[in-house]
Amino acid sequence: MGLFRKKAQPLEVARIGNPVLRQKADLVDPRSIGGDDLAQLVDEMIATMDAEGGIGIAAPQVSRSISLAVIEIPVDSARYPDSEPFELEVFINPSITILDEQEQEYWEGCLSVPDLRGLVPRPRKVQVDYLALDGDSRSIVAEGFLATVLQHELDHLDGVLFIDRMRDMTKLATLEEYRTYWLDSTDAPSLDD
Ligand code: ZN
Q1: Residues 173, 163: contact at Cβ < 8 Å?
Q2: Within 10 Å of residue 97's Cβ, how many Cβ atoms?
Q3: pLDDT, position 135
Q4: Cα(147)–Cα(75) distance, rounded to whole angstroms?
Q5: How many A from CA of 155 to the centre of ligand 1?
Q6: Residue ranges of the domains in the chain?
Q7: How far, in Å, from the CA of 1 to the mean position of ligand 1?
Q8: I want to staple 11 with a disulfide (CB 3.0 to 4.6 A). Which of 29, 62, 117, 123 is the partner?
């Protein structure tokens, strides 16, 4: 979508226990869209996502409680070899609609919940309506992995973490134990964001 990757400094990531992760984010003021301050924050969020190796990041994860998230699933992702790539996109004031209640499961991780993976059931198909960085209204319909990534990121805007969505806490593991006991024994790929 023609977003530049400007040089920006990564921001500190808020970790679980920080109350900012549990707040409902405020809507982004439409008057700030297209402005330098918002663009700067987006650049810093992208730099943070890159530095931490994530495929998405929400503003509350950098201690800004506003309704803003960024997602990018790289083409050549060694970590997510089965996933369709998704070009860098900025989601401002997104709203989500579940299009198919049938659930799918992926192992999720989160920059704000370091060193853990958990198997999370979520609806398999969603629609997200949002404003892009240029202020345009956009809509996306997503299934599979991208549907889970979108739900994970947008949950951050409601103060919800992936562990809240888990139903079987025996499927919560440290990264090391995940690799030892679960990685080869499950069809569900994992994501980190
Ligand atoms: Zn997360």
Answers
A1: no
A2: 12
A3: 94
A4: 17
A5: 8
A6: 19-192
A7: 23
A8: 62
Rounded distance from Cα 146 to ligand 1 centre (Å): 14
Q: Assign 188 a pLDDT band (cuts: 50, 70, 90).
A: low
Contact 153, 108 (CB under 8 A): no
pLDDT tens digits along 172-185: 999 999 999 998 87
Report the top-level CATH class of 19-192.
alpha beta
Predicted local distance difference test score (pLDDT) of residue 182: 93
Question: What integer pLDDT is reported at residue 82 of this predicted model?
Answer: 65
What is the Cα–Cα distance from 188 to 121, expressed in whole angstroms? 11
Annotated active-site residue 153? The verdict is yes
Q: What is the pLDDT of residues 31-86, one digit of tens each?
A: 999 999 999 999 999 999 999 989 999 999 999 999 999 999 987 765 666 678 89
CA distances from 180 to 82, 166, 173, 190, 191 (A): 20, 20, 10, 14, 17
Token duo for residue 132:
């892009």
Rounded distance from Cα 34 to ligand 1 centre (Å):
26
User: Radius of gyration of the chain from Cα atoms?
Assistant: 16
